[in-house]
Amino acid sequence: MAGRRGRFFTRAMNTNAQTPASALSPAPASTSSPTPAPASTSASSLAPAPSPAPSRSSLPASRVRAASPAGVRVVVTALVAALAGAALLAAPDPASATRQDTTAATAAATTTSGAPGARGGSVGGVRAVGAARGAPAGPGYYIGRAFDTCEAPSLAVMKAWRSSPYGAVGIYFGGRGRGCPVQRELSRDWVASVHAMGWRLLPLFVGSQAPCVISTAKRPFALGSSPWSQGTREAVEAVRAAGALGLDASSPLYLDIEAYRAGDAGCAATTLSFVRAWSREVRRLGYVPGFYSSVETGVRDIEAQRRAGTKDLPAVMWFARWGRPALYTETVLDPQAWTPHARIHQYAGNVSEAYGGRRLLIDRNTMDAPVARVAPTAGLKSPLSAP
């Protein structure tokens, strides 16, 4: 019998975060700093106390009688004019206030990073969404079970599998290293259709791989001598492919780095450079960078970089360790890291399952992580089109 499906939530997310925890953390209840307690000796205690203003009853009777209504009006008019003048002097210059607001808005729309080339505009004809359209809405996240399979199934199969315990599906939407480069079903209409059925989507990009990748089938796609520029280029490719399928800005894009030789420092450094460049550019273009790899290689190395405070890391961790589901208890990851809503665990692979009379070979996952935002199909113009 099919198990209970997971839960889908929508929320705003910070796609420009530089650390995984902050990238998906909810906004705190209050963003203001606590008000410091006053010092024991305040400024008011050092100033001499003003003399009390004489009350009307304390004035001599002759002065009270001498005050005519016309004189009172003159005094009141003068006092109001003085207060209005003080208020105008205290008010900021309108032009200055406008400049401050513009500066704040510009700063809020700019991604800060220590890596070179952190500027708006376009790369390869792909426009930076945050700079062009303002901060996009954040993706939703899904808590439950997910599957991924090499080639996107037909709509008939996806409909039949709505009886399964799975609520999300991984789709291999791009990259030169895909095991199934020909995706006969995957299209913009397919994405819209399965999303309308209720499926949540996990877009996977299988691009260049580590120079010491273990899989023989992946070795033709090993990184070259310029991993940073290669990562940037492939990020542009990923964003363009995502937009063509109707995967809107703020969607997560998961970079698939297959297992590589452990203990090879040079290989790990090259791979890290590629992953950081890819993540940085994906984030700059308005999407959420995710990362898939083996626990013993890519995941362990990225977690070590997170602990060291390295910038431009992925925002979501999809880790592969086959066995029992351990979404929140994986020992390689710090318990407080990649939370909240930033973990996927692939706990089984190459498993044959059938629902509604349709059989698939799948990998099993459990997740608490962001899923794609699917653009409306009617009259849509991609924000990633060349100007």
From TrEMBL:
Residues 159-366 form the Rv2525c-like glycoside hydrolase-like domain. It holds the Pfam family Rv2525c_GlyHyd-like. InterPro entries: GH, Rv2525c-like_Glyco_Hydro-like. Residues 20-60, 92-116 have a biased composition (Low complexity). Residues 1-60, 92-122 are annotated as: Disordered. This is Rv2525c-like glycoside hydrolase-like domain-containing protein. The lineage of its organism: Bacteria, Bacillati, Actinomycetota, Actinomycetes, Kitasatosporales.
